[in-house]
């Protein structure tokens, strides 16, 4: 099978896995009349029993607050209860924005919430991914640290990470590139490749993640090195080697989709996944 066919078939497979229908046991999470996510019905009942600013009406959980500051304080209280009850995993002490479900550019921040709470409530998260290609078409990829709470030892993008509150997508990519791959700001040029949405169940709840993908062209002398301790090692792979490992399930799901789109762009194939 030729490379383009392999890429196309893997993209079709990942596209289906990235757009899972929301099951009936999850109900909308509505903040001041705006849907921001969804959650398990049992968690909605748990919240209604404990907080006066929640109610269930017309099969949706309604959350009320006077403004974004009060909404953030109330969600912080909810987060502490979930943490105490061990309903969340991998607490980060990192704030992410709460936005309307279909706000693809984070234009309207309604509140801030602890990162670990986004999956239980299917709140939208935003991530940046980087594909550094050499002139001959090989790609630098990273193996995640075996100490990572999620996906230890799996292969991943050379650099990738969540975009926190009050940080732009390009700034987040520059920061992650340095922290994870030691790329000094301004030493290589990133260029926007594509974006896509992943909506699927995960161990922590439900992932609704908007991925902003950047490619980069690097010289043969380029050598990534980790700074933040989250990468076990880097490897420069041919596209066919990457596809082999991807078919063997050795890459994270999120990086698989981003790398496939990056490879498709290099092959002159369409990169729009139409997942919105």
TrEMBL record:
<keyword id="KW-0378">Hydrolase</keyword>
<protein>
    <submittedName>
        <fullName>NUDIX domain-containing protein</fullName>
    </submittedName>
</protein>
<feature type="domain" description="Nudix hydrolase">
    <location>
        <begin position="118"/>
        <end position="261"/>
    </location>
</feature>
<dbReference type="InterPro" id="IPR000086">
    <property type="entry name" value="NUDIX_hydrolase_dom"/>
</dbReference>
<dbReference type="InterPro" id="IPR015797">
    <property type="entry name" value="NUDIX_hydrolase-like_dom_sf"/>
</dbReference>
<dbReference type="InterPro" id="IPR020084">
    <property type="entry name" value="NUDIX_hydrolase_CS"/>
</dbReference>
<dbReference type="GO" id="GO:0016787">
    <property type="term" value="F:hydrolase activity"/>
</dbReference>
<dbReference type="Pfam" id="PF00293">
    <property type="entry name" value="NUDIX"/>
</dbReference>
């Amino acid at each position: 099978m030729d490379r383009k066919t392999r890429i196309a078939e893997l993209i079709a497979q990942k596209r289906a896995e990235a757009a899972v229908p929301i099951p009936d046991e999850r109900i909308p999470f509505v903040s001041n009349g705006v849907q921001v996510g969804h959650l398990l019905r049992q968690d909605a009942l748990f919240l209604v029993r404990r907080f006066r600013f929640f109610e269930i009406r017309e099969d949706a959980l309604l959350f009320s607050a006077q403004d974004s500051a009060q909404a953030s304080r109330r969600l912080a209280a909810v987060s502490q209860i979930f943490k105490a009850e061990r309903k969340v995993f991998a607490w980060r002490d990192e704030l992410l924005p709460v936005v309307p479900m279909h706000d693809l550019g984070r234009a309207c921040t309604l509140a801030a919430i602890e990162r670990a709470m986004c999956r239980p409530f299917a709140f939208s998260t935003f991530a940046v991914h980087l594909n550094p290609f050499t002139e001959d078409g090989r790609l630098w990829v990273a193996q995640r640290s075996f100490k990572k709470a999620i996906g230890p030892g799996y292969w991943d993008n050379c650099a990738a990470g969540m975009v926190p509150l009050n940080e732009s997508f390009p700034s987040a990519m520059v920061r992650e590139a340095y922290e994870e791959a030691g790329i000094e700001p301004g030493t290589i040029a990133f260029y926007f490749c594509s974006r896509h949405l992943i909506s699927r169940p995960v161990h922590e709840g439900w992932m609704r993640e908007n991925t902003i993908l950047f490619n980069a062209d690097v010289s043969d002398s380029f050598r990534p090195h980790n700074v933040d301790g989250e990468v076990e090692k880097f490897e420069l792979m041919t596209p066919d080697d990457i596809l082999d490992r991807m078919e063997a399930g050795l890459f994270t799901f999120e990086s698989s989709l981003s790398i496939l789109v990056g490879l498709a762009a290099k092959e002159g194939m369409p990169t729009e996944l139409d997942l919105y």
